[in-house]
């Protein structure tokens, strides 16, 4: 069976290396820099609503599946 998936959004990956955490222990740190255990905590307790939750969940999936390399080059370009 073939699923029809919506097209990917490359801007989403760029936001992961640009978007700062707006609250909590890691306030001001870029989402890309958040430790895995923090993302795991959100996965267990629930991601926040809206754009932030979507970005955190995406980052969690990237980390979970060993796809950090997708963000590495974007991080280098940003710096």
Explain what this protein looks like in three dimensions.
By secondary structure, the chain is an all-alpha fold. The protein contains 4 helices and no strands. The longest helix has 15 residues, at 50-64. The chain is globular and about 30 Å long.
Summarize the structure.
The protein is mostly helical and 79 residues long.
Structural class: mainly alpha
Distance between the termini: 42 Å
How many strands?
A: 0
* Arithmetic mean pLDDT: 87
Q: What string gives the helices and strands in order? A: HHHH
List keywords for this structure.
79 residues, 56% helix, mainly alpha, globular
How is the topology of this model organized?
Layout (H helix, E strand, L loop, with lengths): L9 H9 L17 H10 L4 H15 L4 H10 L1
């Amino acid at each position: 069976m073939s699923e029809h998936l919506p097209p990917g959004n490359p801007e989403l990956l760029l936001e992961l290396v640009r978007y700062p955490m707006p609250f909590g222990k890691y306030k001001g740190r870029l989402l890309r820099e958040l430790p895995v255990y923090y993302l795991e905590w959100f996965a267990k307790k629930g991601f926040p609503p809206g754009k932030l939750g979507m970005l955190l969940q995406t980052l969690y999936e990237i980390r979970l599946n060993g796809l950090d390399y997708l963000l590495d080059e974007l991080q280098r370009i940003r710096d």
